[in-house]
């Protein structure tokens, strides 16, 4: 689950009041001495007939608007900032590691952390700034939550890369909730949490430990290969890749312990090249934990850092927490049950925790069959309908059978839904 990254590689994923505020940041631009505020204001509210009210702003609806009231109710929850929540514990472990491991020239942490950025972004921020093609499958309405054609709930924390680099930052972590329409099972939820990491290097910084540094360069006029971009020298790419893998290996060792086995799988993302997925061997099983790579220089250049080269990674907090704490169902992260939350009130963020199951109640299985028009159907439309009606009672939905009617071309479907409540037996 390097969720944001994998989503780009593989084309596919109770009405409650919201907290009163989502925190913003103040940053400085590379191209201006004035400061700019990254927007965040007030809580979400339910949509009216022709506008969506969210974080203190109104967004006119159009033919792309598909965000639901249930999803709006999650905006502003910020589970990653709730003290002693398991996602907060993971975020704090990563933050603590980066603060202590990487120190700047002035003795302060090299990496800055932004965990209050608004989840409402423009389509340009979410896709265009990351060089994602207009026809890329990840842009589909069926896979995202659009407020309208111009604004959406971010599908990944990478949506903030360009702005943060443009503001003058060379090393940062961005953490937040992200939103995707996806399948229903114990590892997928329409809202989850990611951490983005970016590090840029000048020529002097990258080659500082090498003798005769003046003879080495970051850039050249070459050809793109499987191992490098056309504008990068092989020496620069090798050092950036080495640093990236070293940083991430140290991070996973910090979280999961010494002796951790790691392997790297070559892959492809629109915003990095070369690109990799990191897998760890945990309790005898190889598990994917994040995606990463050398940043596309076109992205870096457009943000105003033409003289630098860098790496980026993206990881899912839920993925790490489910592995580390042995949490079997992603819905549990949204639980307000004290039996769940109290398990993570510990004196130290690195204390070992093994989740104790809350429920031994049996699940309820329901089958449903229906006809669908072939030209407008998306499987995520059905998942969204199921989530809207059944909420977090629904643990899993699977497709059992399908066929096309030979005369009218309609598509009947037979799906099975598994319901399970954590507190008591349910009857439907």
From TrEMBL:
SUPFAM superfamilies cross-referenced by the UniProt entry: Anticodon-binding domain of PheRS, Class II aaRS and biotin synthetases
Catalytic activity from the UniProt record: tRNA(Phe) + L-phenylalanine + ATP = L-phenylalanyl-tRNA(Phe) + AMP + diphosphate + H(+)
Stored InterPro entries: aa-tRNA-synth_II (IPR006195), aa-tRNA-synth_II/BPL/LPL (IPR045864), Fdx_antiC-bd (IPR005121), Fdx_antiC-bd_sf (IPR036690), Phenylalanyl-tRNA_Synthase (IPR002319)
An example molecular function term from Gene Ontology annotations: tRNA binding
GO terms under biological process: phenylalanyl-tRNA aminoacylation
Listed SMART domains: FDX-ACB
Homology family: Belongs to the class-II aminoacyl-tRNA synthetase family.
The name this protein goes by in its record: phenylalanine--tRNA ligase
The organism of origin for this protein: Anser cygnoides
Source taxonomy: Eukaryota, Metazoa, Chordata, Craniata, Vertebrata
The encoding gene: FARS2
